[in-house]
Amino acid sequence: MEWVVVDYGEVVCHPPSQDAVARIAGTVGGDPAAFWDAYWDGRAAYDLGTVDAAGYWGELCGRLGRAATPALLEVLVRLDLEMWSRLDEGTLQILRDLDARRVPLALLSNAPLEMARHIEAAPFAGLFRHRFFSADLRLAKPDPAIYAHVADRLGAAPADLTFVDDRPANVEAARAAGLRAFLFTGADRLRLDLAL
Q: Among 57, 102, 155, 173, which is least packed by CB within 10 angstroms?
């Protein structure tokens, strides 16, 4: 195992709780289910960095019948960061164990600029020798080019990268690009997959 490359959302952190989704939906007066649909419909462009926060949240608010004022935009960005900040202690312990064994770690996340900077400022970010974010790269999983970019930046052959993600499409694309890849279903399973 030359490098272990992990996703952030729903691997390093837990998925947003129902309460967190209801809280952010309430700021725009939307039903949580309608909000969540609108949230994901425009998220790919936001994660890719082709739409900024004002554009993404403005479109979402408009779809739900609310104007996106600067004050509301600030609240939405903050709540978005908060709902993706419940860390999975089981995963973090695995990362600490790998780091203690001197296994180099990298993070690869589809994340907008605000989320990327938030993650980089977190205490756990120091576990990763490299952190790659879709909005910075203007590439996103499962595009094969992102896996090639990561391998190139790490100076490693794709076969020397072990990749972990919670989305089957991202895992399949990584395997097709030559990486050893595991679907994350929980920290206990990941520990077995990595033979720790």
A: 102
